[in-house]
Amino acid sequence: MTKKLVFDTDKPLTKTQIIKLISDNSNLSVPIIKEIFEDYQKLLYSELDRVGEFKLLDLGKLKVSFVPERFGTNPLTGEKTLFKSKTRLKFSFSKNIKEFANSLYV
After folding, report:
1. CB-CB contact of 61 with 47 (8 Å)
2. Which of 4, 64, 80, 105 is in Cβ range 3.0-4.6 Å of 52 for a Cys bridge?
3. Which SS3 state, helix, strand or coil, does residue 30 take?
4. pTM for the complete prediction?
5. What kind and span of H or E run contains 70?
6. Beta strand 80-83 pairing with 70-73
């Protein structure tokens, strides 16, 4: 028998609550669930480093993008400014998650 996967609270679940719920519903101990999450996080980091993207199962895709340095103009003063290059993370949600979100507040 599985327990319900929510707490009766208006606040978001904490990491500890999430691990406890998964542990209770999977009949695995809390340390094992923690280790699985740590391994998943390590995998995410290594894949972002290796290929620049990581698919989060059916939730969506996390991508690393590089923005090169560029010149811009201050619209008030007309002064030219150099914007430094940076690395950004972008997350695109899967179609299923988008459809679910659209159905929430109809």
Report:
1. no
2. 64
3. helix
4. 0.74
5. strand 70-73
6. antiparallel
The Cβ-side half-sphere exposure at 46, using a 13 Å CA radius, reads: 6
- For residue range 33-63, what is the model confidence (pLDDT) as tens digits? 999 999 999 999 999 999 999 999 899 999 9
Measured from the Cβ of residue 3, the count of other Cβ atoms closer than 10 Å reads 8
Give one word for 4, left, alpha or beta, with left for phi > 0 and alpha for psi -120 to 50: beta
Between helix 30-51 and helix 15-26 the angle, nearest 10°, is: 110
Cα separations in angstroms, 82 against 34, 59, 66: 44, 37, 16
| Residues forming a β-bridge with 97 | none
